[in-house]
Amino acid sequence: MTMNATAPASARGEASGPPDPDPAGSATGGAPKRGIPRPKSTPARRGSVFLSAHPRVRLGFLLAAPLFWLGLVYVVALAALLVTAFWSVNSFTGEITTEWTLDNVITVLTGSLYQTVTFRTIGVALLVTIIDVALALPIAFYMAKVASPRARRILVIAVLMPLWASYLVKAYAWRSVLSQDGILEWVLAPFGLHTPGYGLPATVITLSYLWLPYVILPIFAGLERVPDSLLEASADLGGKTWPTIRHVVFPMALPAIIAGTIFSFSLSLGDYITVNIVGGASQMLGNLVYTNVGAANNLPLASAIALIPIAIIFGYLALVRRTGALDNL
Amino acid sequence: MTDPQPAIRLTGLTKEFGAVTAVDHVDLEIAAGEFFSMLGPSGSGKTTVLRLIAGFEQPTNGTIELFGDDVTKRAPFDRDVNTVFQDYALFPHMSVLENVAYGLRVRGIGRRERIERARRALASVRLEQMGDRKPSQLSGGQRQRVALARATVVQPKVLLLDEPLGALDLKLREQMQVELKEIQRELGITFIFVTHDQEEALTLSDRVAVFNDGRIEQLGTPAELYERPSSRFVADFVGTSNLFDDAVSRALLGRGGVHSVRPEKMAVGSGETAADVRNAPGTVVETIYLGSGIRLVVDLDAGVRVSVLEQNDRNRVHDDERGDRVVVSWHDDDVVALGGADVASEPAA
A287 lies in a domain? Predict the structure, then answer.
């Protein structure tokens, strides 16, 4: 804004200002005028030109590889599974008979073993999900809204760190923690409490630990997207901590929370290794599939059992689709 | 609004962020019912003062009084002040009506009454038809008015506005300035308005505090600030000024010190001869056509480049061009002394 009180340009020589009809042509006039060379026309360049003019071709190239992968590995494999469930095994030869039958599906739906295991699996998955969300919410909130940028980076690394170790190592670590003479027993004994030992509670604890990072990260990302000014606005309008969490933070984080639950729920539903390691004698759906594929050599029955978690997950996804949570994955 | 207490009294208010002092011993009293602006460049501490008054930040030192009550240590939800945020901070998952009713809801006011009051508040900003929409379905100006309704529905004693018009385009901004002024007059509550737009501050305010480096550089009415800036910074920041440093002042005015003259107080002509008129010859460097006026940039022979604003009215006779020799003249009355030999006028060279 200031017309600066220094010497005007004219007093310092014609160094600045708009292009002058300067006859001397002093500073830049010496060198010949040289343009920037035009890019050469190479095949790659012609290809780029073609692609930039044909968006559909571009899209086709972009999608070809992922669509191929999705089609062959995912859809075809799933379809094969689906089909196998409607075949049967010749009990004498152990060969698969490719005759259509609903026997396997009916067995799985009506057999009391399968019903019990299904409900147990759903129960474990739900419990793991609830525990993970309860643990993840405060951690994610602290990471997203309270911690300094430096502390936030450290916490993100800390949350991700367990994922660097093998799943098996972590499950066996919990087996040792939960054992009758393990750390947990040693810590709890002075308070008159005992380790739950191996069984369903141990399974829930271990699965909750395993899937916690998958729940924290989406909730953290969701909360990070809530502008600080909204929290300030709530406080400004008279909202104390709890009303602010209930009316502002929770509704805005809900899609992210649901995204997190999809991970913990579906991962728990399909798990069979953890329950083998810390679950004692209890079985989950995954164990039944595993036994039927391996020891029992009944692939069609295993496929039919595998349809149960698929159906449950589809039901769950249909339920959460309405909340808009799937936009957040 | 006959309260003899000032609405806001800041005493020795200081805020440090690590090694940076954002607000440096600010003392300030704002009268009840006043439209008060805090003007300054970004980083001058004006927004921090606002956030300290709202309670979003805790001061390092000093106190904040609201109608005589010391609120320095109180949480934001425990202060009778409300804020209109720069980005409006409307809750995206709530409808416009729910947004406006939020302050009433968290105060435990019944559903029927809060909806009734929120509707009235929306009507006062002429948005009664928009209650069911989501904030994302509104234009910038409408969101701005929702934010205003949301902050005023809880009847605060002081309303804080953090650059509320910054995101609007020029036409809308001018329209909202008029509306803000009307709303303030209707509600009769104290408005504290933060802006970096000097024109906006001059247009709206009863009084303006110009902030620089965490301190109040000058406090006064818009006319005082514009006509009699007390420092080089204010002369430069509020409006456009032609600044004469010590040497130029000696040559042109016959006395030392730093002085300023507004461009519209200068005229380009062939020189006047009245006793209180100063004439200075120079060369036109640039003429800029502004529509309602013409700005001439002239290099005076005394060694300073000045900007002269001429009205494009029927009295305008000259058509000066680049390179023309002209005489720039101004009245002695229009020269503002900005204190003694300024540090800026003593460069090593």
Answer: yes
